Amino acid sequence: MEARDHCHRRADHALGPDPTGYINYGADGRFYALVVSRDRPVPASLPPNAEEKIRLFDSMLAYTGTDTLDDEKAVHHVDASWNQAWTGTDQVRFYKLNGDRLMISGAPAKDPHARQDIVYRIEFQKVLPSGEST
Question: How does DSSP assign the chain, residue by residue?
Answer without folding.
Answer: -EEEETTS---EEBTBSS-EEEEEE-TTSEEEEEEE-TTPPPPSSSS--HHHHHHHHHTEEEEEEEEEE-SSEEEEEEEEESSTTTTT-EEEEEEEEETTEEEEEEPPEE-TTT-SEEEEEEEEEPPPPTT---
